[in-house]
Each structure stands twice: as structure tokens, then as C-alpha cells.
Amino acid sequence: MPRLLHVGLDDTDSKKAMCTTYVTAVILDELKNMGFPAAEPPKLIRLNPNCPYKTRGNAALSFSLMVETDEVHIIKDVVLAKVRELADLEERGTDPGVVFLTGRIPASLAEFSTKAVKEMVTMKEALDLAKSIGAEVHRFKYGRGVIGALAAIGNKFDNGFTYELTAYRTKVHWGTPRSIDRTSVFEMDTKTRPYTFDNVDYTTGEVRIMPHTPCPVYLGIRGTDPAVVESALKMLRLEEPVERFVLYRTNQGTDAHLADVKISDAKVYSSVRIRGLVSSAPSTIRGGHVLFRLRDQTGQIDCAAYEPTKHFRKLVLELVPGDNVTVYGSVKKHRGLSKTINLEKFELMKAATVTSTVSPKCPRCGKTMKSEGRNKGYQCPRCKFRDPLARPTVVELSRRIKPGLYTVSPRARRHLSKPGESVYVI
Ligand code: ATP
User: Fold this and answer.
1) Residue ranges lining ligand 1, Cβ < 6 Å
2) Which of 9, 38, 114, 132, by CA, is between 20 and 30 Å from 277?
């Protein structure tokens, strides 16, 4: 009887080499050549972006196959042999995990996945869960990758999904600079946006589809429509050979990591969306970071736009106390400092009114008069006319920033953050 076999894998790479997506790509091609094609596009799941164990983008992978019961062992052998062969096991911190599960995805596994995207989970939680659902777990070294492997199988795309078409480099090119006709990337972006996203960063002129790491990825095109990402790839003028391509279904660009919370419930290592009022004026501190304080009914928290967010900091500097905003970002706590939200974006919901007082003009000569003290009237500095009853007028200043959503540019965007351009550029 054919059964659906789910395979999850994670933590095969180090900062120096490899990428779990590549290990998955090699396994998928090998299984396909053996007559076991994947049932649907493999899943590339981005987990908690604040996880301290991550190598880079905290990706975990899974795929599913329809297999006869007596063939399951063949699949398992191929997967485990490839992980053993390709994982960068020499490096400290590379702790691969592989999980096999047959049949339906239990609700408890889907919940675990949601939690692993939004906050931290423990190895004990992962192992207890695997046991309770009858998942087969394989740990290499410490095997922390079991967490990601389970989460990738269990992910049900709570917030929707997007696609990524990834092209891999031939081995001789690994670790060398990547090359592509830049103009073709800009042309592709113009022709395919918004069905593809984050191809380029117009604020800096950077091409964003190629990583800068020594991993086997040549480039990845992200988008909402698989046919469009495929045609986008054809528009590119590639400048090196491609070993293989894989189209992934992914939770990238869906905001799946964000939880709606009050300030007092913002947990360190989680990602949050909080509505509140700006309670201190934004200011630039050493290193070029911009900070302001936010308050709601439950407390106050610092919000930061760090230096690498570049232009976004200028938008943050336009906020004033009293602005009603929703902030989005990760909760961090650096030693000796209070909790801080590392901003990914903010929405100005209702702008506070900013006023200024204007001194009256002299009725005789038109010169701006000078105050004689609080409630003591004004005197003209030129003709010396005095008016003890004159008072300043309060005028409303126009604000440069308008209600709307303001995001970091693609170069500073998290894989999980929904793409989008700021509504108004200052
Ligand atoms: P790459 O993006 O290049 O594939 P990576 O950034 O995904 O690398 P890994 O090498 O996979 O990083 O390391 C992340 C480790 O953290 C894995 O072992 C994974 O199981 C674990 N992990 C992921 N999310 C969580 C979480 N929410 N709580 C605890 N551990 C997690």
C-alpha cells in the first residue's frame, strides 16, 4: 500500500560551507532518478529569525513522497547517506537532524512548527513530541537539527506561502565570487514585480538575488506565482553554469514570525507586532542607530532602527511623541540594557498634532515682536511699540511623514518579513 512519507532535515551547514537547501536538492534529484519524485514542491521553512543557533537564515527543509511500505527503507537510506556525505560535520555547531514521519501531519506537530517560527523551543520539547507522534528521529552529533526537521514537516503555512526558485553552483565555483549581468536583474525586476520580490534594492542599487556566502547557492528568485518566478529566471543573463534548480514552497515574505502582543508580554528572542504611542522623541546614538520609546497600557519598551537599516532610520526620525504606531520587529536584550525591539517596519496609524507658537507682528511697523515675559505682553524691537495684551498664536505644523506603512529596504529585510515599499519616501 502506498503511503505518504514526510522527510525533514536541518542543520547540515556551517558558516564556511554547505546549505541544507543544497543537501535537499541533491537528495530530491537522486530520489527522482531512482523513480521516487516528490509529491509537491519541497518546503523551505524559515524558523525563528532570532534563534542564536542559526548559521544564517534559519532555514529548515522538508519534502513528501508517496512510497510503497516496502520501499520506505530505500528512501531513508538515501537521505541518511547524503546527509552523512554532504553535511559539514567537522565544524562545531553543525548538528544535523533528520526526521521521517508517515501519514497525516498531527495538529501537535503543526503547533510546534508555529512556535518554532515565532519563538524558541527546546530539544526536550522536540524529542518528546517526536516520540508522541511516532516520528523517527536521526541525530548526527548533538542533532539539534531535529527541531528544524520536525518544524519543516509540520509547517502548514499559517500565514500563506510564497515560492523561491533556487539555482545551485557547480562545485568548482563554490567559494568564488558570483557573477551575473546586473542589468538583466533590474529588467527582470521591472517586468515581474510584484509577482517576484526583493530582487534588487533600489535605495542602494544592489542586486539581492545572490548571497555573499561560500555556500552552493548561486541565486534565488522569490515570488508569489511559480510560473512567474520560472519566467523571471529565463530573463536573467547568467554568467556561470548552474548545476541544478529547485522550486521551493516557502513561508518567506509572509510575516509568519510576528505575534500580536502587549509590551509586558514581549519575550526576548520572539518577534512581535505591538500597537502603542511614541513616548520619547527618536534620537540618533553612537554608531548611527536611532532609538525611541514606545508605551502601551502595560509598559514601555525601546525601539531601535540600527545603522544597517540606512534610509529607514530617517523615516523613524520623523516620529514624534504622541504618534500612534504599530511596530514590527524582534525583541532583543543586550547585556546591561533593557529589552529593545529591533525594528523591521512600523505603521503610523494616527499622527500626533505638532504645534508651534508664533509671536505677533507689530501693528505699527510689521516687525516680529518680542515677549516681555509669560502673560506680560509683547514689545516691538524696532519701533518699541508695547502691547501688554498681545499673546502668541498657536499654529499647527505640517508633518512630512503621513499615516502608512514604512519598511526597511530589501538589503535589511528578514527572510520572513512581508515585502513592501514605504508609502512615502523622505
Ligand atoms: P542555513 O540558512 O544556511 O540553512 P541556518 O541559519 O538554517 O543555516 P542551522 O545551521 O540550520 O542554521 O542552525 C539552526 C539550528 O537552530 C538548527 O539546529 C535548528 O534545529 C535550531 N532551531 C531553529 N529554530 C529554532 C527555535 N525556534 N528554537 C530552538 N532551536 C531552533
Assistant:
1) 10-11, 13, 19-20, 47-48, 51, 53-59, 95, 116, 120-121, 144-145, 147-148
2) 114
Q: How far is CA 134 from the centre of its chain?
A: 32
pTM given for the model = 0.92
pLDDT of residue 360 exceeding 60: yes
**Whether 338 and 366 share a structural domain:** no
**424 is a domain residue:** no
Q: Beta strand 271-284 with 290-296: parallel, antiparallel or unpaired?
A: antiparallel
**How does pLDDT run across 275-333, given as a tens digit for each residue?**
999 999 999 999 999 999 999 999 999 999 999 998 999 999 999 999 999 999 999 99
Q: Whose CA is nearest to atom 9 of ligand 1?
A: 11
The CATH number of residue 23's host domain is 3.30.70.2200
The range of the structural domain enclosing residue 111 comes to 2-154
Ligand 1 mutation target, pool 23, 54, 166, most atoms within 8 A of CB? 54
In a 3-state reduction of DSSP, which class is residue 52?
A: coil
For atom 13 of ligand 1, the residue with the nearest CA is 54
**Quick one: 174 exposed, middle or buried, by C-beta within 10 A (0-12, 13-18, 19+)?**
middle
Q: Are residues 129 and 27 in the same domain?
A: yes
Question: In this structure, are residues 414 and 48 in contact, taking their beta carbons and an 8 Å threshold?
Answer: no
Q: Are residues 60 and 172 in the same domain?
A: no
